[in-house]
Amino acid sequence: MEVTKQIKKFFNKYNSKEKILVTGGLGYIGSHTVVELIEAGYEIFIVDNLVNSNIEVLNGIKEITGVKPVFENIDCTDYVAMDRFFSKHEGIKAIIHFAALKAVGESVENPLAYYRNNVISLVNVLELMPIHKVEGIVFSSSCTVYGQPDHSPVSEDTPLQKAVSPYGNTKQICEDIITDTVKANPNICSVMLRYFNPIGAHPSALIGELPNGVPSNLLPFISQTAAGIRKKLSVFGNDYNTPDGSCIRDYINVMDLADAHVAALRRILDHNVEGVEIYNVGTGKGLSVLEILSTFEKVNEVKVPCEIVGRRSGDIEQIWADPSKANKVLNWEAKVSLEDTLKSIWKWQLHLSENEENKEKVKGGVKMSSLLHGS
Ligand SMILES: NC(=O)c1ccc[n+]([C@@H]2O[C@H](COP(=O)([O-])OP(=O)(O)OC[C@H]3O[C@@H](n4cnc5c(N)ncnc54)[C@H](O)[C@@H]3O)[C@@H](O)[C@H]2O)c1
User: Fold this and answer.
1) Residue ranges of domains in the chain
2) Residue 68 CA from chain centroid, whole number
3) pTM for this one?
């Protein structure tokens, strides 16, 4: 290793306050990652335009860590505002780029909003990196890039299929944009993390997933149904070619996922990433919708009324990760049990319901629907 790299590595190890920009840092995965980054000793700067998050999340982060990170309400598609941000906060060493729209169905209805938001945000950030001497970027990719694979588990070498939605296509396009950009610019590097299905909440129940409107993901729907906010859970199809007929996914605890970001970031800051690296972030275990449902009911001692309905278009039958590359190279593995993960979701749901009740009391019965929306 050349001497400058060795010096940088030594400096990084003993200078624990490296400055990191987290875009979309008040969102679901971003906020949990910010907590882990602060606890790992980084100085965090959050950029978020609150299009799918709430400023109260900042207080949750502060309560957990004792630190209120710098927050700027900026839209990443605004190049001038982002440029100003980097000039104001000099010395950002790396970026974790979460900011994106992520609802598959919405992306089918309004594809241009997805292409504009997800692609332009990334292009801006990539253009600004060399100008402001940012060394690397961790990018939120998704297992959606694999489409319906011929077999599972999928490894990073599994060929990608044509995306089934504009959202999925933005992830494929963004991966290509990063690859081309890093190839043309040896001063920056990237780690792209392909998440499987993130679930769970921080064990304190001070932050968690806050779906806007009717949740399209399984777990928020299950917990809201258990809490009586939804009448019943619809299970989309029980005639798939799986042991119990329902779809199979790889559910990864959000704190484990957050830790994968800390590991990826460390690898960037230690100058161990040459060009672009891609990692699957999953448990390596596929679980069916019905298995998740029955385990949720069992560990939380609640009932979740449900009905089997027809298949939902765009759903793939089954997919789970081969996470061995992340296990080996990032020295990362999923640790939290499914039981503890499902308990954390219920604890978070109870916290939300309690907050909602308190707010209603304070408001004299006026419903505050910003946190939870009725169906
Ligand atoms: N949650 C999942 O199931 C999942 C799975 C795979 C990949 N991902 C990806 O992970 C990332 C984070 O997902 P999440 O579940 O935390 O979503 P989220 O919606 O909770 O968080 C995204 C955050 O980005 C912000 N944002 C969006 N566009 C922005 C813009 N132009 N400028 C500034 N802020 C903007 C939103 O306000 C929100 O706070 C996304 O890129 C998503 O596509 C999520």
Assistant:
1) 7-354
2) 21
3) 0.92
